[in-house]
Specification:
Elements (H helix, E strand, L loop, with lengths): L1 E11 L2 E10 L4 E5 L6 H8 L7 E6 L2 E2 L4 H6 L1 E4 L11 H11 L4 H13 L13 H13 L5 E5 L7 H16 L3 E5 L3 H7 L2 E6 L2 E7 H8 L6 H9 L1
Parallel strand pairs: 3-8, 3-9, 6-7, 7-8
Antiparallel strand pairs: 1-2, 1-4, 4-5, 9-10
Helix pairs in contact: 3-5, 4-5, 8-9
Length: about 240
């Protein structure tokens, strides 16, 4: 469903992506791990067609993300790492705008209502008055309510308290059961272990390791080691 082939975008120094290649199968949940500056958000911006690669390519559902960005956006639910809203809008206003851009189907409003209840948020509140965590909930609803077959989520639980992180994990597991393909960029190791089958660990724009979590434990740490311990071992 997601295919990255020799993707390269250089910004100077160690910033950017360097001949990056991997695949995410349909219905699979795949996590990207790496410190700030490792290239996670740059990769996601390529997948959404926001950046033109210097070489290589990224594809979703067989469509090239740069050249066929409009087609790609129709099948992707996206939560950016930093959310910016239009001034003077309520949460519901913003979500209705997103619905309209995607055809305003009845299923969108039904899912929006259900998600708002699950995430315990009043969408009639002014966005300017919302905390970071509340704004994050609005962004997550925008990504999930479209019922897209592919979900790309960048630091999705930023600003969430432990209870909301648990709700997020439950929501993602439900989406997986419905056959969704997930690419998750996160610093939350527990969240990744509870939602994803495979992990790619980025270091200076390249994959330091990729594989199923248990296989990474055996290869880079020890049996029973946490994903965080594997990550630290690779960066020692």
């Amino acid at each position: 469903m997601i295919c990255v082939e020799g993707l390269t975008k250089q910004y100077g120094g160690d910033k950017g992506l360097y001949s990056l290649s991997f695949q995410v199968e349909e219905g699979e949940a795949f996590a990207l791990l790496g410190p700030n500056g490792a290239g996670k958000t740059t990769l996601i911006r390529h997948l959404l067609g926001f950046i033109r690669p210097e070489s290589g390519r990224a594809l979703i559902h067989g469509w090239e993300c740069w050249r066929e960005a409009v087609k790609v956006k129709r099948i992707v639910g996206y939560l950016p790492g930093e959310i910016h809203f239009l001034e003077g809008m309520k949460g519901l206003d913003f979500l209705q705008l997103v619905c309209g851009l995607h055809g305003d189907k009845a299923i969108f409003s039904r899912r929006r209502t259900r998600l708002a209840k699950r995430l315990d948020i009043d969408l009639n509140q002014d966005l300017r008055q919302m905390s970071k965590g509340m704004k994050q909930k609005v962004g997550l609803i925008a990504a999930l309510m479209l019922d897209a077959p592919v979900l790309i989520l960048d630091e999705p639980t930023s600003g969430f308290d432990p209870l909301m992180k648990r709700v997020f994990v439950d929501l993602i597991r439900e989406e997986k059961e419905r056959g969704k393909t997930l690419l998750l960029a996160s610093h939350n190791f527990d969240e990744v272990e509870r939602t994803c089958e495979r992990v790619g660990i980025l270091r200076t724009g390249q994959l330091a390791a990729i594989g199923r979590i248990e296989a990474l434990r055996q290869a880079h740490a020890a049996q029973g080691a946490s994903l965080e311990e594997v990550f630290i071992k690779l960066y020692e």
